[in-house]
Amino acid sequence: MKQSEGHGQTHTKMKILLSSVSAMMAETTTFPIDLIKTRLQLHGQSDSLARPTNAFRVASEIVRQQGPLSLYKGLSPAIIRHLFYTPIRIVGYENLRNLVVADNAASLSLSSKALVGGISGVIAQIIASPADLVKVRMQADGRMVSKGLRPRYLGPFEALNQIIHTEGFGGLWKGVLPNVQRAFLVNMGELACYDQAKHFVIHNQIADDNIYAHTLASIMSGLSATALSCPADVVKTRIMNQAASKEDKIMYTSSYDCLVKTVRSEGLRALWKGFFPTWARLGPWQFVFWVSYEKFRQFAELSSF
Questions:
Q1: What is the pLDDT of residues 265-290, one digit of tens each?
Q2: pTM across the whole model
Q3: With 44 labelled, which of 77, 96, 137, 250 sits at a CA distance of 20 to 30 A?
Q4: Are 262 and 235 in contact (CB under 8 A)?
């Protein structure tokens, strides 16, 4: 019994390591798309008369004004975030799924997988929220640089210190509610859909348990995760980007207040701002992550996810 427990702990540690490495690879590959998505979601926030824009125009302006390397502004806190966020949600989902159905994971219903995915995502996001806050603010700082202004933060650790100093320790969890809402929806769509789609593809002999099945499953899960989470992602981005002024005035008092003000000033479609960049990022992100993670598991002689 003790030997079995030790074996299980070793497997869990290996899964944590492999999921972290795979997440770092996926994040580095797709980070410029995430930056463009964040800028699109913030577009029109302070100026309702701002001219319409698109992903190509945003990317062109960033490269022209700040250089190609500015597309990776905020990468370090994003990597730090995924060292916590991804292993907890991926390994947590698998452990919860196996706890519910120990013998045959494929027999678990889609709704149960969605609930398990949502719960694991919420736990992971609460822990990783400070790193996510720093990432969003550093990405948004690029807009200040393009206007000739000094950025608020010169690096992730300075950002952490300033946030704690000006907004208190609890300020690191600003936007945690919309963050958690988004994490629940993303992981409900991503993990459950990937799990279900992969088993469907294999069971119906569309492909074996290989790169083809993993690619098809990652595309389907990316689309469902984006459609479900985009409104919560817009709200999350705007709340996390706002910093208290000297008069302690803030634009949004809650996620609901942000939702109402965004729809009122910019229309309902504003909630899906950045939809295509989000999907364009989630698709490649999940492809790189799932293909590498499944391959790493195979090399480590672990069973498929």
A1: 888 888 888 787 778 777 888 889 99
A2: 0.74
A3: 77
A4: yes
d(CA 184, CA 70): 30
* CB 269 within 8 Å of CB 215: no
- Residue 237 one-letter amino acid: T
Residue 105 gets which letter from DSSP? G
State whether the Cα torsion 24-29-32-34 is positive or negative: negative
149, with CB counted inside 10 A (0-12, 13-18, 19+), is exposed
- Class of residue 202 by CB neighbours under 10 A (exposed 0-12, middle 13-18, buried 19+): middle
Contact status, residue 153 vs residue 87, Cβ threshold 8 Å? no
CA 251 to each of CA 45, 51, 135, 262: distance values in angstroms, whole numbers, following the listed order = 10, 21, 20, 11
- Burial bucket for residue 60 (CB in 10 Å: 0-12, 13-18, 19+): exposed
Distance (Å, whole) CA 257 – CA 254: 5
CA distance 110 to 11: 26
Question: From residue 209, how far is each of 79, 93, 205 by CA, in Å?
Answer: 29, 20, 10
Position 126, amino acid: I
Sign, CA dihedral 217-219-223-229, equals positive
* Average pLDDT, integer, range 123-144: 80
302 in helix, strand or coil? coil
The first and second tokens of residue 141, run together, are 């700082």
